[in-house]
């Protein structure tokens, strides 16, 4: 007798099965190698499967709010921490302000990634936690969007895909989709030649000398490597102060490391703290030299540090600054409202009534502390 296992939940891909040909346990009781269960795989009766701790302890942890330490499941402090990052939630989406250094996607040994924490901490009254629909780099910060239901995840993934196929059946939905955008703020070394513009520079992936590590680079027209279209709008937000400029980036496509590569290689102004794509520029960069006048306007400089300000927390005055890239603003369709229309559902009682009638939702996320310090230092430099 056999049975078929289906991919029924976000955790099924983490379920593992012992390999029968290897004998399961050895004579000392140690577990022999296991492998992941494939979706749709036919299994024999009596096969031994293994669930990760995050699945096995979910019901216990939700009930008692006490999570054993040393497990792959986040502890109570991590859950409370993630819940404090939530800026908005309704029946369809959850919006967070992701801090820097917190990984968005993690494998089984990485239990403190955003998706693992969300599965445990952000389910609220749902059976499962929300699912990521777009990503931010580990070192970057800002608005992170998650879908709470299969319908919302499908619509959001389509919305953030680089190719939108299908016809619109609702004019309001079409207009809301066309109005969707993301805006990032970044501090770059140097200054773009033009105050604003459109970068259209395809990207491709290449293997480094070790033959294992992939790196994203600007596509070479003469190369045989496959390339992906990458488009970014940008504008300079203010004057160049001590060799750095604040710029606003609006990606029209969603490619891995798109903004970082466009800044470093297309504009020639790498983002402060981006040592992967701007290492050589950082080596020559002299941080915050003390000068008397601003080189463009000729106006005097004066540094006024707020009382008690610690400039060593990853700001431009730190020896090793953190990445200064922040997803500050997001505008997207009111998914909960449109799903209610598409699927002809009744009123949603636990959704904020004040925002249910709007076709668009707008979110603005505060910059992390190291970027706020840099902003305060540089904005107070010019008087």
Structural summary, described in words:
This is RNA pseudouridine synthase 3, mitochondrial isoform X2. Residues 93-264 form the Pseudouridine synthase RsuA/RluA-like domain. InterPro entries: PsdUridine_synth_cat_dom_sf, PsdUridine_synth_RsuA/RluA, RluA_PseudoU_synthase. It holds the Pfam family PseudoU_synth_2. The chain is an alpha+beta fold. The chain is built from 10 helices and 18 strands. The protein has helices spanning 53-56, 58-64, 76-84, 114-121, 150-159, 171-178, 258-266, 279-284, 335-342, 369-379; strands at 2-4, 16-18, 34-36, 42-44, 49-50, 86-89, 93-98, 131-132, 141-147, 181-189, 196-200, 203-207, 214-218, 227-228, 231-236, 244-251, 325-333, 360-364. Strands 6, 7, 8, 9, 10, 11, 15, 16, 17 and 18 form a 10-stranded mixed sheet that branches. The chain has a 3-stranded antiparallel sheet with strand order 3-2-5, with no helix packed on it. Strand 12 (203-207) and strand 13 form a beta hairpin. Helix 3 (76-84) crosses helix 4 (114-121). It is globular. The relative contact order is 0.12.
Write a brief caption for the model.
It contains ten helices and 18 strands. With 383 residues, the protein is an alpha+beta fold.
């Amino acid at each position: 007798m056999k049975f078929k296992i289906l991919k029924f939940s976000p955790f099924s891909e983490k379920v593992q099965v012992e390999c029968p040909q290897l004998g399961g346990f050895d004579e000392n009781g140690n577990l022999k190698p296991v492998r992941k269960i494939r979706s749709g795989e036919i299994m024999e009766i009596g096969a031994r499967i293994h669930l990760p701790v995050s699945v096995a302890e979910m019901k216990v942890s939700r009930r008692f709010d006490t999570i054993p330490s040393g497990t792959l499941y986040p502890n109570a402090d991590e859950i409370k921490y993630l819940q404090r990052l939530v800026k908005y939630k309704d029946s369809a989406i959850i919006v967070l302000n992701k801090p820097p250094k917190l990984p968005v996607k993690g494998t089984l040994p990485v239990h403190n990634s955003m998706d693992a924490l969300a599965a445990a901490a952000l389910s609220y009254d749902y059976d499962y936690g929300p699912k990521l629909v777009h990503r931010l780099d580990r070192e970057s910060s800002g608005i992170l969007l998650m879908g709470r239901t299969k319908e919302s995840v499908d619509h959001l993934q389509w919305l953030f895909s680089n190719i939108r196929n299908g016809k619109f059946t609702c004019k309001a939905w079409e207009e809301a989709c066309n109005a969707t955008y993301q805006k990032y703020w970044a501090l770059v070394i140097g200054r773009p030649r033009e105050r604003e513009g459109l970068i259209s520079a395809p990207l491709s992936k290449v293997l480094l000398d070790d033959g294992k590590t992939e790196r994203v680079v600007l596509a070479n027209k003469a190369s045989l490597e496959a390339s992906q279209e990458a488009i970014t709008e940008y504008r300079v937000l203010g004057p160049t102060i001590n060799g750095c400029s604040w710029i606003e980036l609006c990606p029209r496509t969603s490619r891995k490391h798109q903004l970082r590569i466009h800044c470093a290689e297309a504009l020639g102004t790498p983002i402060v703290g981006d040592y992967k794509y701007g290492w050589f520029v950082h080596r020559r960069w002299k941080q915050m030299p003390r000068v008397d006048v601003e080189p463009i306007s000729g106006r005097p400089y004066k540094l006024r540090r707020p009382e008690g300000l610690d400039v060593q927390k990853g700001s431009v005055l730190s020896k090793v600054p953190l990445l200064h890239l922040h997803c500050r603003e997001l505008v997207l369709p009111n998914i909960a409202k449109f799903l209610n229309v598409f699927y002809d559902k009744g009123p949603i009682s636990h959704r904020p009534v004040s925002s249910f009638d709007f076709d668009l939702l707008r979110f603005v996320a505060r910059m992390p502390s190291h970027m706020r310090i840099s902003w305060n230092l540089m904005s107070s430099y010019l008087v």
